[in-house]
Fold these 2 entries.
Entry 1:
Amino acid sequence: MSTNLSLAPQTDPRDRGGRHQPMLIVRNLKKYFPIRGGTLQRKVGHVQAVDGVSFSVRKGETLGVVGESGCGKSTVARLIMNLIPRDSGELIFDGDPVGLEQGISLRDLRRNMQMVFQDSYSSLNPRLPIQDSIAYGPRVHGASRTDAKKMARDLLDKVGLRPELYGARYPHELSGGQKQRVNIARALALSPRMLILDEAVSALDKSVEAHVLNLLGYLKRHFDLTYLFISHDLSVVQYISDRVLVMYLGQVVEIGPVDSIYDRPRHPYSQALLESRLAMDPGERIEEAPITGEPPNPINPPSGCRFRTRCPFAETICERAVPQLSGEGVHQVACHMADSSSGHTKAGMTAVH
Amino acid sequence: MKPGAKVNRSEPLVEVRDLTVKFVSRESTVQAVNGVSFDLMPGEVLCVIGESGSGKSVTMRALMRLLPAKRTKIGGSMRVGPHDILSLSEHALRDIRGSQISMIFQEPMTALDPVYTIGDQIAETVMRHEGCSKEDGLARALELLQLVKVPSPERRLKNYPHELSGGLRQRAMIAVAISCRPSLLLADEPTTALDATVQIQVLVLLRKLQQELGMAVIFVTHDMGVAAQIADKVAVMYAGRIVEYGKVSDVLLRPSHPYTLGMLASTVHGQARGRDIEAIPGSPPDLRRPIVGCSFAPRCKYAVPACLTAMPAPVEIGAGQYAACIRTGHLDDKVEAAAIA
């Protein structure tokens, strides 16, 4: 490994692949859910939930994932956690392929990578006091009862819930924000390297959301975590992310550094999504919706570019060929207009509008 | 029948005075709404902003008397047009629901009847209130679906709710709600469950319909951005009370109640990365217990001992802008606050 000496102090002893080895590489991930119908429950089609998604998450960064409901962002999260089996594709965690004999085992993957869900109540066991819920993971992974309990109480303290006051409470005795803090504490109980936050703040009131976002920032610095932050809220993603990935109908349409995406979105979908954001100033009202219609059904997605049915710039090439994710440097986009050799009349123009 | 014709344009369409709503059960009494008063002019859009439990949806349901009568105690008075809502009989209520006051909800799937087609549901409302034939009702339904910009409306008339996407269902529910040209539309977070690109389509549509039909709208939301997009007036609710009220530009750009200030500061919109968001400490009060003094005082960084003695009355700050805070206008006099505290 050609590790620079000056970087040595930053290297985490848990790193297997070195500081510059991405924490997670996702390659060509695919998941089609079968649809069954008829009297014999035969397969009658597929929901193409995730179709060839590739990206990587660097160590210590927050990668934001945005997209509308049904775009496959939560399915990606579940595939990465191996909560559902993938049809094809590769996952590489810190240099080790997941699920292969020479790679990292599922058990070790889940020790290193944990997930926080949107529904804070249904993800906690209603019959367990919250400190027992948090201690459950460490117990399963071999910690003694006293160690696990001490760890749980330390974590409760870290997420801002006083253990002597809250430790013995049951989930129904907590507010939504407090339950989400417990979920975060539980996710941290195995000292993971990476957290997947699937709409983790979306169900919370704005003032509670602010607290939880501050907490996530603190925990990231304190535990040197890497986040995959999935949300439909573009403002929250802008605030928390270093890089942003935009998904549409099971595919990545754009990925890049957060400021680059927010200031100079290149995919027409990213542009429409950002223009749909509501300003806080009544003087800046949107008079005309930036885009019409809704995402089409992923059972039978449009040929070629999946966005073409809603895209104001669609041409025949968009119908015929699937645009590939490309672009110089770190900001990549899957649009024929960004590819000068595609044959799209607007191809090669740096700014679309 | 044109209920809109009965509306006097120069006096308020809605007058709510000192509305209180209590939910009574064997274990406890929840004081959900705690003395809410406001006026609404015909054709005006009022946004009620508040977090969960602030009483915003309960106020809406009280206005339409949709709360379970056995477990609810409503006090104060509510007038919509010529009707005193609290004194109406069940029969009279059924007459004005849908024709004069309509409501749209966050979840259209539960508001629409799953076993009737969209066309039948719109036609039923029109037939019930305007006494026309089924043919006329269906013709009206088609017009309405065109009005709410449902693509290929002829086909959609024959669709059941589950066959529509979220955005189309929301449009269908709006079509049912406006089918008899109500003078007042109550909208309870109708765009919260929608995606950003669809939400803006529905907001633009609602604003356009409101202007074309001259409807007054009370729009409940927790999202300051939605209020900025659609409101003329804004009422900010906290713990069952209106803490600030005024023109949308005044309240959102020149807020004067500490809670409004806190809400705006804690809403994520372009804050610097890596720096903490200014969040309001603590959590809302337990509405099962009586609150003495300002309900926001325990979380307020400007609070002084006097805040805890009595609920502050609304103070007029500028033209038509009110804040229920004894310190409003002097919030920055921190020296004074520190001295008393």
Entry 2:
Amino acid sequence: MSLVSSSTLSWEGTPVPCLEGDTALEALLRAGIAIPHSCRAGACQSCLVQAKSGVIPAAAQQGLKESLRAQNYLLACLCRPEQDLTLVPPGPGVRIPAFLTEVGWLSDSVLRVRLAATAPLGHRPGQYLTLFRPDGLGRSYSIAGDDLELHVRRIPGGAMSSWLAEAQAGDAVTIQGPAGDCFYTPNDTAQPLLLAGAGTGLAPLYGILRDALRQGHQGPIWLYHGALNERGLYLTAELQAMAAEHANFEYRPALLDRDGPLPELISRDHPKLNSWRGFVCGDPTIVNLLRKRLFLGGMASRAISADAFLPATLK
Amino acid sequence: MHITTMSTLYEQLGGAPAVEAAVDLFYRKVLLDDRISDFFEGVDMDRQISKQKAFLTMVFGGPVSYSGQDLRRGHAHLVARGLNDSHFNAVIENLGASLAELGVASELINEVAALAETTRADVLGK
């Protein structure tokens, strides 16, 4: 077996050795080319690159929006070159210059970061964007509203969250996106909606909730925000005020130490979910448990939108 | 000249829309069945649902065919965990119950079960 793949990969015209089974990202990083990357699973889209010539494996464009596919963009982490492929960095216009307009604490572990972009992003609340520091480090965050509001969990030792915690309004960043299909669509305004998540999974849900109410959603909307204890909750006053204002909106903070596991709590409240639409967001473990529970409760698989937050990989 | 064509099993069942209608019902029954649910623990739902669609399309006589080798390779890790005839029977039972719930005639259900039966040896690695 040959260790060197029969395909030829090149970066801006320079050949890059690509071993059998390598992704383009692995080959480029090994060659010392600093490609921004984070999740290595096709979700964060940090490693977006453009093909100038060659054959793009279909899997490498998974999850990209149509306009990017059409311009031969691909994700280096999902790309195992099968034939010759020449890659270049993303062109201007794909990453939009932006600046921070607000950085403040929502709780002792969650930052609210607001951004202003120099060009419209064209996003729907609940989708996500990738935020790049001036040095190129990128991380994905869900968009919590029409404005570019992000909820950033402070991770001890986390490169981006530590930087954001020290950042100030006016600091320059670049953003890319949006991506993801976890957002409200007003095709049935009477349908009951169930929004459930834990931790900063609240960010996309908060965006979806406000979008649904703004678009005049009439059916019941239940929002479950799971946390270990009181300290894990945030935006409680805002959500309580919204529940008081909108008769069709129920806010359910769910504390593990008081209410037990979130999926069981939802089943107790709603034994039958046949006609509902669901949104589940947060870390992959809770997202998988929640979507399975909603499905077993009778929700149609295609009525469940899930956004599992993947951690940045350290490799 | 007048030509009469016998419609295929897949057409009689309703084709792709019938697969769409059956997949949630079938997958939900499988996940709720204590005899077999352990085999699906921790499996990605999206991927599993697309596999179930392919399986249903095949046993409906539709345009999907797995080779015996595909089925052996795809189930070898489950056979290693103890997958046997009783589990295979439980899946066929859930399949029949799903179709009955959708109002499919019992003759057609029997045809589907017979097609599913042809995969038994490969699925169980016999």
